């Protein structure tokens, strides 16, 4: 590891140190992750005095779109085709995440982000801002997956990558979304007031430039944060605003990271009402459950919310049934976040 750190420094890059480096080596040695960062590959080539192929590294031109400039430092000439490939891969991971859950995809998504970071850091040409936007969307997805895994620190780090890339992309819509989404890390860290402030700040910074669908999402996210701090009137106002703003058509093509319609808002309202201890939460959550679609994460969260709502209504038999279903889903699809919510619920529903 000392030789690795020295080799990376000699290339002009920085490597993780201490416990982080040990974890990286453990992943590499076990085969759980591949060495994807170009500087790290070059460091191993220097250490072992062996070519890429002998070390099991795939050629760097596997996408067919990266032209490596042979003189001076290794730079990537990024074109529109490469950006489109990255965006397509992110969308595929996003859709697989809905079907398979976090446990099956988190490592793959993080490797995707790492590769995009390496290309962005060494990119030339006129597509850098577009590549930065693609990285922001991918890092936001990875951050959400890390949060679902219960890894608060990693989720915050990945959202920080997303925010930095969004700023470089000069895309205010994307920046507002990843900034507001990072508020969920604060919610899970029991910093509800800070989460509410962050969502409000993101919405205010975007102002009238916000696409309508994003305005709906921001209003609903603010309602959830308001419910977390116990501000019922604020939460209800924001939920009403979200319903009022919901467009008739589908403009999600411009915002592929948002999947939002009436059934999603029903789930959101039910979640907020359950947080606030309102009995009508059960009605909204049951409506949402009938149309949950193919998102395993959404289904798991719905059953946890229903368990909370039934418990608050004194319906312990129904609460126990929802807990059983939620435990099964959270275990199968690897949602430690929902498992943590269940741990707080179990003592009051066992008997």
Structure characterization notes:
- The chain has 351 residues and is mostly helical.
- The model is unreliable at 61-72 (pLDDT under 50).
- Helix 6 runs parallel beside helix 8 (172-181) and helix 15 (296-312) runs antiparallel to helix 16.
- The protein starts with a helix and ends with a helix.
- It contains 17 helices and 3 strands.
- The chain has a 3-stranded mixed β-sheet.
- It has helices spanning 2-11, 18-30, 38-48, 80-100, 106-121, 128-148, 152-169, 172-181, 183-188, 192-206, 212-228, 232-245, 262-275, 281-290, 296-312, 316-333, 336-349, and strands at 67-68, 76-77, 123-124.
Distance between the termini: 53 Å
Strand order across the largest sheet? 1-2-3
User: Total number of β-strand segments?
Assistant: 3
Major sheet = 3 strands, mixed
Q: What is the approximate shape?
A: globular
Contiguous uncertain segments of 5+ residues: 61-72
Q: Please count the helical segments.
A: 17
Order of helices and strands: HHHEEHHEHHHHHHHHHHHH
Q: What fraction of the residues are assigned to beta strands by DSSP? A: under 5%
Radius of gyration: 22 Å
Overall mean pLDDT score? 86
SS-based structural class?
A: mainly alpha
Helical percentage: 55-70%
């Amino acid at each position: 590891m000392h030789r690795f750190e020295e080799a990376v420094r000699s290339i002009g890059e920085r490597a993780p140190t201490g416990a982080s480096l040990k974890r990286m080596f453990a992943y590499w040695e076990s085969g759980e992750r591949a060495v994807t960062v170009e500087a790290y590959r070059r460091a191993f080539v220097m250490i072992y005095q062996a070519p890429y192929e002998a070390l099991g590294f795939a050629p760097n031109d596997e996408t067919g779109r990266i032209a490596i400039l042979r003189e001076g430092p290794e730079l990537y000439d990024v074109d529109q085709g490469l950006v489109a490939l990255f965006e397509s891969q992110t969308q595929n991971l996003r859709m697989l995440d809905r079907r398979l859950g976090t446990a099956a995809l988190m490592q793959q998504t993080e490797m995707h982000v790492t590769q995009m970071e390496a290309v962005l850091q060494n990119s030339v040409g006129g597509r850098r801002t577009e590549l930065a936007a693609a990285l922001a969307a991918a890092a936001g997805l990875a951050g959400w997956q890390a949060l679902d895994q219960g890894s608060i620190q990693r989720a915050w780090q990945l959202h920080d990558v997303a925010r930095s890339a969004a700023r470089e992309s000069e895309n205010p819509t994307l920046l507002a979304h990843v900034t507001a989404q990072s508020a969920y890390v604060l919610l899970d860290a029991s910093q509800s007031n800070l989460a509410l402030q962050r969502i409000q700040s993101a919405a205010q910074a975007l102002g009238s430039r916000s696409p309508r669908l994003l305005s709906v999402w921001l209003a609903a996210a603010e309602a959830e944060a308001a419910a977390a701090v116990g501000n019922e009137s604020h939460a209800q106002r924001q939920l009403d605003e979200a319903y009022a703003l919901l467009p008739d058509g589908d403009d999600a093509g411009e915002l592929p990271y948002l999947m939002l319609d009436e059934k999603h808002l029903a789930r959101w309202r039910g979640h907020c009402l359950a947080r606030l201890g309102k009995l009508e939460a059960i009605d909204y959550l049951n409506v949402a459950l009938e149309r949950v679609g193919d998102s395993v994460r959404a289904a798991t969260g719905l059953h946890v919310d229903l368990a909370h709502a039934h418990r608050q209504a004194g319906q312990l038999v129904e609460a126990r049934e929802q807990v059983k279903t939620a435990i099964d889903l959270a275990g199968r699809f690897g949602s430690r976040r929902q498992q943590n919510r269940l741990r707080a619920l179990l003592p009051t529903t066992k008997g």
